[in-house]
Specification:
Blueprint lengths: L3 H6 L1 H15 L9 E4 L2 E4 L2 E4 L2 E5 L2 E2 L7 E2 L5 E2 L1 H13 L4 E8 L5 E7 L2 E2 H8 L3 E2 L8 H10 L7 E3 L14 E3 L4
Parallel strand pairs: 4-9
Antiparallel strand pairs: 1-8, 2-3, 3-4, 5-11, 6-7, 8-9, 9-10, 12-13
Length: about 180
């Protein structure tokens, strides 16, 4: 019969321990440290702060906090602030769990964040407060199509496409409307 010390000295366990630094350097499997949990502060419609850590919602983009859009009647609205408030109200005083998905184009940490079992990015897209970032993931495309068809949130009017913020710095902004996706 082998004891636990023998198991650690040799075999697969020892090889795993020797390979751990290499796995970490190469961006290996997610570790427990890649999960953040707590009550968030909502910074904008796709950015949360949990315990001092800024986290972007993976796979989606929402208007910047100060962004102005037009509603269905052509009136200017503070769509970025609306998105921020909607997310803050939805989370309320709840705790969230965020699982790292790496970093975005601007090197901001991004994560799949859940309130209970609900994916917060999916909720924002379904409500029309954020759009799917098709350059990152396809997971939210169907939710976006349904929000567009129902003319929810941003899709009720005209807005600057938030997925182009970092890709098109210095160029004229792309606009999206309820009539064209």
């Amino acid at each position: 019969m082998r004891n636990s010390v023998d198991g650690i000295r040799g075999g697969a366990w020892a090889r795993t321990l020797r390979a751990a630094p290499l796995l970490l350097a190469l961006g290996g499997p997610a570790l427990a440290a890649d999960t953040v949990q707590g009550r968030p502060t909502v910074i904008d419609g796709d950015t949360l702060q949990v315990g001092g850590t800024l986290i972007g919602l993976y796979g989606v983009a929402a208007p910047a906090a100060a962004q102005i859009c037009q509603d269905a009647e052509g009136a200017n609205i503070r769509c970025g602030e609306r998105a921020r408030r909607a997310l803050a109200r939805h989370i309320g005083t709840g705790e969230i769990v965020c699982e790292s998905r790496g970093v975005d184009r601007s090197h901001r940490p991004v994560a799949l964040c859940r309130l209970g079992r609900e994916d917060l990015a999916a909720w924002m897209v379904r409500q029309g407060h954020a759009v799917a970032d098709k350059h990152v993931a396809e997971a939210y495309n169907a939710d976006e199509t349904r929000a567009w068809a129902a003319r929810r949130g941003l899709w009720a009017g005209v807005f600057e496409d938030p997925t182009t913020r970092s890709r098109e710095a210095g160029r004229s902004p792309a606009h999206r409307t309820a009539s064209a996706q």
